[in-house]
Amino acid sequence: MDQKRLGGVLPGLAVCGGIAVVAVGINLLVPAASPLLLAIIIAAVVANVVRVPESCGPGIKLSSKVLLRIGVALLGLQLVLGDVLGLGFGMLLVVVAIVVGGIAAGLLIGQALGIPFARRILIACGMSICGAAAVAAVEGVIDADEEDTATAIGTVVIFGTLMIPLVPLAAYGMGLSDEVAGLWAGGAIHEVAQVVAAGGMIGGGALTLAVVVKLARVMMLAPIVTVLSIRQRRITGNAGKRPPIVPMFIIGFVAFAVIRSLGILPDAAIEVGKFAQVALLTIAMAALGLGVRVQVMRAVGWRPFVQAALTTVVVAGIALGGVLLFG
Question: Which residues of the chain have pLDDT under 50?
Answer without folding.
Answer: none
